[in-house]
Amino acid sequence: MKKKAFVAVVVALFVLAFLSPVLRAQEVLLGTWKTVADEGEDKGKAKSHLEIFEKDGAYFARIAKLLLEPQDKVCEKCKGELKGKPLIGMIIMSDMKKTGKVDAEFGEEYAGGQIMDPENGKSYRCKIWVKGDNLTVRGYLAIFHRTQNWFRVTE
Fold this sequence. Notes:
Number of strands: 8
Distance between the termini: 47 Å
Strand order of the largest sheet: 1-2-3-4-5-6-7-8
Helix content: 10-25%
CATH architecture: Beta Barrel
CATH topology: Lipocalin
Oligomer: single chain
Order of helices and strands: HEEEEEEEE
Radius of gyration: 20 Å
Largest sheet: 8 strands, antiparallel, barrel
Shape: globular
Number of helices: 1
CATH class: Mainly Beta
């Protein structure tokens, strides 16, 4: 009986050791993320909380909380039906899908969607990478890009 228990423990340890890197590579994108201003007078300050959620196999982000602006602020520079709408609840990132690629530095990659900057009302192609409690967000305009780091909110 002791031999069977020993074999079971060895097998369990082997399985855990083998699967650990695989499980770590599958980072969790869902949840609340803190954005940080990367330009202007508020550079370096926490700016907002965004909630990332999944719908029909794609990932989206909506503004959950503003940290530097009044909660009732509206999007003045947005275009179309979003113009003048409240920022809280606004979906600013859409249609992101897991690519299956994992970057050694940035983590698991998602792409194929777009992100909208409420500061200027413009939309950009987007890629994101999640690694632990860090999210790297990159918006593209032709060959130019801008990268931000978002941080998981663990309240």
